[in-house]
Write a structure and sequence with these properties.
64 residues, mainly beta, 4-stranded antiparallel sheet, globular, YjzC family protein, YjzC
Length: 64
């Protein structure tokens, strides 16, 4: 089984990197000016700007 790719606020970052907000169906929902955070492994994800959003690693969040 692979590593989880979307994270809820309060989850711990599995790896260091830049994470950005995505919608529920990330590649169908375009978010204008999404919030981004840089986290180290084990740091906690902050709250999103909307309860329906999640965090995803930036390199995996950009589909196009």
């Amino acid at each position: 089984m692979g590593e989880k790719s979307e994270f809820e606020p309060g989850d711990k970052a599995p790896n260091p990197g830049v994470y950005m907000e995505v919608g529920e169906a990330s590649f169908h929902t375009e978010i204008q000016d999404p919030k981004m955070v840089t986290l180290e492994r084990g740091e906690t994800f902050p709250q999103t700007t909307n309860k329906d959003r999640k965090w995803k690693k930036k390199s995996k969040a950009q589909v196009h």
